[in-house]
Each structure stands twice: as structure tokens, then as C-alpha cells.
Amino acid sequence: MLGLVDRIPPGRVMSYGAVADALTEDSGRTSARLVGAIMSRHGGGVPWHRVVNAAGGMPPGLAAEARARWLAEGTPLRQDRVDMRAASWWPGESM
Fold it and tell me: Where does the Methylated-DNA-[protein]-cysteine S-methyltransferase DNA binding domain lie (predicted)?
């Protein structure tokens, strides 16, 4: 799972649910909650700010740092959240 997160290009994001869906194709079963739990425990070594909730946001404690990283990468934003329509990415998709 962390390998998939590491492949998300700068300026793009996946929701927890999208990560779960992508992994389901390989492993047969996963959930957005499981993705969140793994990210909270082991996600510090990958671009964690590229995995967001379905509305394009982060948990309150991470929002300020994530926003700074999104701005640095040129991630499309809309009212302090990621513009999911413009920034969503799927494995295998070209830039």
C-alpha cells in the first residue's frame, strides 16, 4: 500500500477509498478505514499529503502542513481543500 502512495505524482492525490479500490484489484479486499489506519501508523515515509478524504481534506491536526505541501507542489485547491476533480489520480494514468 505504501508503494502505491509513493507513486502518486506531485500535485495529484488519491482518496483513502480510491487507494482501497486500487489495492482491492491486487489483493482482493481492503477498505478506506484500513488505508487510513496504515497511513496513520506507517505513512510518515511516503507523501502522506497526497492521500486525502473524499472531500479533499485532511484531519485537523495535519491540515496546515498538508496545505503547505499542496501549495509547494501546485496541487489544485478549492477553499483550503484539494479540488478532487482536477487533482485525482489513478495508477496507470499518465500525467
Answer: 4-71
The pTM assigned to this predicted structure is 0.92
Burial of 33 (0-12, 13-18, 19+ CB in 10 A): exposed
Domain around 47: 2-84
94: in domain: no
Amino acid at position 4, single letter:
L
C-alpha cell at 4: 502505491
Q: Do the domain assignments include residue 90?
A: no
Examine residue 62 and state whether it is found in any structural domain, yes or no: yes
